[in-house]
Write a structure and sequence with these properties.
Helix content is 46%, strand content 22%. The protein contains 7 helices and 6 strands. A 6-stranded antiparallel beta sheet has the order 3-2-1-6-5-4, with helices on both faces. Helix 1 packs antiparallel against helix 6, helix 2 runs antiparallel to helix 5 and helix 6 runs antiparallel to helix 7. The radius of gyration is 15 Å and the shape is globular.
């Protein structure tokens, strides 16, 4: 919980306070809402979509949903509208309401990969402007760090291996490249 919560805090700090996370339910083949940022806008989005109570669910096989595509292809995907994030679970009108609450509709979806497997995704957005290349690199580094930390936590919980906090090393590497 702390690891995923910290990812949303970092997203808010870099200007994406409306971010949310979905988790993969491999047995059901669904991506289910997990948690949202703590901003008022994120709370409004949560009320409309049902993210934190897992009412929001998308088939991982959905060809038209940007979150499913990012998870299936294990790559970052940009979505210019909220409709690309919420279809078919929600219709166009509901997507427009979410865009109004968020103040925009552009999002970037980054899959969360743990030990080589996609376990969910961060939806950075929605917001007015598209994320720029430097912001996308920072989001990618944050998500990669979370994947490393989740993997270390899983190993520590199941194998008794020490949990290693990779966040600092990953962020320092990004900063060394002049991104953060």
């Amino acid at each position: 919980d702390d690891i995923l919560g910290s990812l949303l805090v970092h997203c808010a700090a870099v200007g994406v306070p409306t971010s949310f996370i979905v988790g993969l339910d491999p047995e059901a083949g669904l991506l289910r809402g997990d948690r949202v940022s703590t901003s008022a806008e994120a709370a409004g989005i949560d009320r409309l979509l049902g993210i934190s109570d897992a009412q929001f669910a998308i088939s991982v096989d959905d060809r038209y949903n940007a979150i499913a595509r990012a998870c299936r292809e294990a790559r970052i995907v940009n979505a210019p509208t909220v409709h690309e994030l919420v279809q078919p679970a929600h219709d166009w009108n509901e997507a427009i309401l979410v865009e109004r609450v968020a103040g925009g509709g552009r999002s970037t979806v980054a899959p969360i990969v743990v030990n080589g497997d996609v376990v969910g995704a961060l939806v950075a957005g929605p917001r007015v402007e598209e994320l720029g290349p430097a912001e996308i690199e920072l989001i990618a580094a944050l998500v990669a760090s979370v994947g490393d930390r989740l993997g270390a936590a899983w190993r520590a919980a199941t194998l008794g291996a020490p949990a290693v906090d990779m966040r600092i090393e990953a962020l320092q590497a990004v900063r060394a490249e002049g991104v953060a």
